[in-house]
Structures are given as C-alpha cells and as structure tokens.
Amino acid sequence: MLGMHMGRVPAPVAAEDSDNAPRRQDTCDWLFAINRASLVANVESGLLEKPLARTIAAALDAMEEHWAVAVSERPELYITFEPELLKRCGMAASVLHVGRSSQDILATANLGLNLDRLMNLIAAAGEVITALQDLAEREIEAVVPAYTNGVQAQPTLFAHTVNAHQEAFLRDADRAFECIARFDACPMGSAVCNGTGWPLNSHRMAELLGFAKTARNAYDAGQISGNDLPVEMSQLVSSMMLHVNAFLADFMTQYAQVKPWIRLGSTNGVYRSSAMPQKRNPGLINDCRRDAGTVIGEAQGVLLRTQNLAYGMPDVRDCRLMQALTDDACVTLRTFAGIIRTLSVDHERALAELNADWTCTQEIADRLVRFAHIDFRSGHRFASRLVTWAREIGVTPVTITYADAKKLWEDFTAAAENDTAEKEAHLPVEFPLSETDFKAALNPADIVAARATSGSTSPTETRRLLDVMKHDETTLRVHCDTLLHRREKTREALKTTLAALLA
After folding, report:
1. Last residue of a domain, which of 55, 77, 98?
2. Which distant-in-sequence residues (6+ apart) come within 8 Å of 430 by Cβ?
3. By C-alpha distance, which of 235, 217, 237, 236 is closest to 225?
4. Strand, helix or coil at 482?
C-alpha cells in the first residue's frame, strides 16, 4: 500500500514477491501443520488407526507438493482445503475433523501468522535501535540545543536525545514481546466456541504446533481473542510509526534552517527542485514520513472494522490486510533505520546556535541557589531580567561581560528594595557569583557536564545509559532469535514426529 520512494530503500512489497526471499508461511501452511498435528495427537490417543493415518499423511504430502508449484490454487479456508483431501483419501478421512471446526482451525492459523508478524516487527524495531545506538556513539561529544514547545530550552548532548528515542522504540519492542506472551495460546480443541466431546489432546496439539500453552476459554479462543490481537497489533504499529514521525519532525525543523546543525550525510533520495536551482529536497525523509502516516491510517482501519462488530465475524481477521499492515510497518522502520545511519552533527554550528540565545539562564538561577544560597524565585527573576536586557540590545552569552552581570545585579537588588516580597529575600548587594562560576553558567559544555541526576545528559551518565541500551538491544535480539528458532524447530519437528509415529 505504500507509495514510491525517491531513494534506495527496501521495496514496499510483500516478501514473497522478492526473487531472493523464500516464500513465507501462509494460511495454507498452517492448514497442513494443523492436520499433521491432528494426525499425531489422534494416533497417540488411540482415536485414529495408523493405516488410515498413513493414507491421510501421504495425501497431505502430495497436496503440499502440488500447491508448492500451483501457488495460485493454494486454499486459504479449511472448507476449500478439506474437499481436496477427501478427494484423495475418501470420506473415511473425514474422521480427522471430528472434534474440530473451521473456526478453531482458522483461529489457530491466524494466530500463528500474527505471532510471526509480531516477531518481524520486533526485528525491524531492533534495526532502528541499533542504528540509533551507532548514531549516538558517533556523536557522543556533540552538544546541541534541546527544545521544548518548539523553542530552545537547554543545552544537551545529542547522544542523550538519541538515547531517548531508543527508549521509545525499546518500549515498542517490549510491548510486542508482551503481546506475544499474552496471546501465545493454541485455540485447537475449542471447536466452534464450546469445546468438544471428542477427547482431543489439546495440550499435545499446542506443543506440536509450537504454542506456549492452550487457550483457557473456548469461547474466547474462537470468538474474542481473534479480534483483540489485530486491534492490539494495530495500536502497537501506530506507536512505532508515531515515534518515527516524531524524530523526523524534529529533524525537519532543524533541516529547514539556512544552516542546520544536523546533516543528512547521503544524497540517497535527495533531489533538486525543478524550478529552483539552489534547492535540495529530502525526498527519502518525506517518503518515510508519508509511509508512517499511511501505516497509521491502515492501522485505524482495524479499529473501524472492529467497532460494532459481533464476536465471531471475520471482518477484522482478514489475513491479507494484517499482512499488508505489518509489511508496510517493517518497510517504514527499515527505511527510517537507513536514514538514521546517514545522520551527523555539525558541532560548531550547534554550538553557534546555543550561543546565539540564552539556553543557559536556568543554570544561572540554579548556581545562585547552590553557591550563593539565594532563593530560587529571586534567582529565576534575575536570570529572566538578564535575558530581557540582553535581547533588547543584542548581547549574547558569548559577548556579555562579568561587569555587565554585576551592574544588572545592582539594578535588580535596587528594584527589589521597592518590592515587599523581594525585599524580604534579603539579597546581597554584591553579585554573589564569582566570575568563574558565572562564565561556567554560560558555557553549554560546562552546563551539560554539571548535570548530576540519574538519567541526565552528563557525558558520564549518557555513556552509562548507552551501555545499558546496548545490553538491552542484545537481549532483545537474543529473545527474538529464541522465539524464531523455537517456531522453526517446531515446524521441522512436526513432520519428523509424524513420520516416526507412522513408520
């Protein structure tokens, strides 16, 4: 559903359309797996004779081989899958369906596919976290303005702000893991909604199909949770896309300046205006922002399809729509990661922007409290008056002198004598900061270095947090790889288990 890209990025198409990518699991694969698991569970429980099971197993192998070539004929519904099986084996094979329903079969298939999609989202989010980590480590020395309400607020380390974005994407990945753990319960045995009198070993079915557990409530498994998971996934995807757009919005605010302090280090996706020779447009970034917005729109479609929907209706469970949503989200995340890898900071330009305005004034107020024991409100009022005076005559933190500060303090304390509240503050006549302390309060690097709290922008704390994030990133990848390995191992083991049982 995504549009064209100006730059070289992962193509916004389904994975099976790629010449190099292996065909991924689809509903038909799950129908084969469920039928094979049913064979194993029923034979082990004495509910199905081995000779008939062998006939069914051989038919399943033949059908799978045929549909591997005739891809367009692959069924997506059990009611179109079973007739082919019965055609090959006879009506006696229909005993395999006793204790099952197309409802719990398709609920299981959709669940398995959606859990795989969540793992793909985690992997894509991991690429973003890694790209941000690399950016923060490259620019660990860069001191830049931090903005609140779109206005310069304080000096900060660029790596500190990048680490903050990492935290956001890590929360998204954590939510995806939590979602997997919450829904990883096999619906087989739920039948339509009430369970079954057929003594199907549902715990064995869950094990054979690679689920962590069985569903606790048959009605929930067949009718409710199948709606809840797409809704939860849609909101998870929306959160990821919002985080992409928030970063890019901040970037574009700076990039739009005549001399931005952040640079796009690649010409990939940058194009010239057709009319204005000087103009270079960040096409790939525009494409990524558009794609993120498109995905958010797709995600809200899940909510719209779900509202006023009776349980058991298939509207929100559309396999192709959920696949498109997660495919588009993964493409957008990987495009975003590619953009992040090209960014760099112009340190001198960032410092010039800091020194052109008064982001240091909170530090002046703080030092008046810490070193001179002035009450904070008086310190804040003095710093505010200093800024007003400086802006009126064009003085900057670089050009102000210590003598200017001393004179401003004299004027401030003199005015305080005429204000009852300020008079009670008992302010000293002489400016209470030394020249060294005053100059340090104006220096962005000194301000950053002076931060003392946990999670602050100080170089020491920023490096510590980046080390923590690197550990969390590794843990994320190991956890994701473990889940993927478990599912791959389960898929491989099912055929082996069936063959050994029927030998």
Report:
1. 98
2. 406, 409
3. 217
4. helix
Residues of the chain with pLDDT under 70: 1, 3-23, 266-281, 283, 312, 314-317, 417-425
The whole-number pLDDT of residue 359 equals 86
The pLDDT value given to residue 428: 84
Query: Which DSSP letter does residue 92 get?
Result: G
Same domain, 52 and 137: no
Contact 226, 110 (CB under 8 A): yes
Say what the pLDDT of residue 420 is.
56
- d(Cα 234, Cα 130) in Å, to the nearest integer? 24
Counted residue by residue, the chain has a size of 503
Contact 75, 28 (CB under 8 A): yes
DSSP state of 156: E
Identify the pLDDT of residue 39: 96
Q: How far apart are CA 444 and CA 454, in angstroms?
A: 19
With H, G, I as helix, E, B as strand and everything else as coil, classify residue 6: coil
Q: Are 144 and 350 in contact (CB under 8 A)?
A: yes
Q: How buried is residue 93: exposed, middle or buried, by Cβ count under 10 Å (0-12/13-18/19+)?
A: buried
User: Which pTM value belongs to this model?
Assistant: 0.89
* 330 within domain boundaries: yes
Are 67 and 73 within 8 A, CB to CB?
Answer: yes
Range of the domain at 90: 24-98
